[in-house]
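Can anyone check this?
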Amino acid sequence: MDNVFGRIVDLMPIPVLIAVALFGAAAWAVKEIESLPSLLATLRSPSLQASGFAILLGLTAYYGFSFILRQGESPKFAEHQRGVLVARFENDDSDRVQTHVVQGLRTALFDKEEFRDVEVRSANRILTEEPAARSLCGDANAIVCLWGVFIQPKTAHYIISTPASDIGRLLVPEFTDVTDVQNEIINVLGKTKPRARDPKANLAFLERSLAEEREARRQITEDLARLRDTLSRRSHLEPTGTDNNVTAVQTLRALVVGVSNYQHLPALPSPAQNALAVAEILKERGANVTVLIDPTRDQLYGEISKTAELSESSDQVWFYYSGHGAVLDGDAVLIPTDGDPANLLESTISTATLGSKLKNIRGEQGIIILDASFAGAQVTSIPSIGHPRAPFEFDVGDKDLAILSASQVGEPAYAVAGAQHSVFTDAFLQALTDDAKKPEGSFKTITELYSEINDSLLLASDSLNIRQEPFLSITGSSTDMVLAKPDAL
């Protein structure tokens, strides 16, 4: 009943307009038939006029009640519903964006059997802060809340929240282009179970989810088996070896960046702690480490250039970044503390720019570690306009470059509320700690590091009910890289 009533409230203007049209047509008809005394007398009868007045009064009362309901507290979803609540947008004339998003989501979900228990409704409130959005979600018993503001005319900043966290952000240049918004919300809903109402529907949903999970695990297990088999057939990887497919270096230089506080974006609790922990463990490996916490764009750009200039021929140069990420015109970009969503082009640093700087290092190897997602959903990033043409595709000349990202392009990277580190960095730190315990003369490679992180994220996926798979790309003449460690110094 709540579901039906919610739809009636949203469509209330339609019967009112119909009623007005009908009364207009009746007035015209009366004028035309004044020459027919008998029919005119019938139309002027008290009983007919009373009936018409009663209809008009009923419609007016119903519409007034609906208006009062919209002005009051947000509608609550029933226990058996998975609700999506769409708040009003600041500067949204006549609520065009809100209405368009609500109707678009309903259309997108209508034909999908697994989302038959999902109801999308409008909220009258305008939200500008995450706590208010989470409170709204919780009060309405909603799974997801969508809210945001206009950055500039016809450019909407969509923010997707749950009662527990802010899980995703999207910049959409035209309010009519909400495909990414719909896909992101559908992605979130797909990870939630239907609420108990129809046991058969619940069972079917759970069976499909279990089959998909088993298939995904099977593919991951096969990929891991192939990777381990490849590694086991290689010769011993030593820093003085002559294997053309695996290269090694003698020293380690690193630039470690964590951005937790932003001038134009919500703060992130974990990046600064991530960076400090990574810097500490790299120093234990004998690395020459530079740490930047909450740098501006100019500071970050200058330090990247400085790191490349100071590098030696024997250096393996690492760049670690944790903070907000975005996708702009097909390129993945990193957002410094002064990054402005209204002007991403001038206030961010693209990974292509980062790659071009690494072409200038004196050594032959660079490793980029990114704890920020470039997708339609996530906790530690702000997805934006466009999608990468290819995952971190750029020219690094004759250098060997490895890129290790917290998640695949199109997937979120998670941080657990209250945890000291993000899910990816926690696994990254553990893998480096285990490497430091290996016997002297034993060297871990970047693919081994990736494999261990991937295993850790698989376990985290089970315990946290998430899906996050790291991404690894190696460009250059080598198919693998030995990681520098203290006994190589």
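Reply from J.R.: I decoded it. Confidence is low (pLDDT under 50) at residues 233-248, 375-391.
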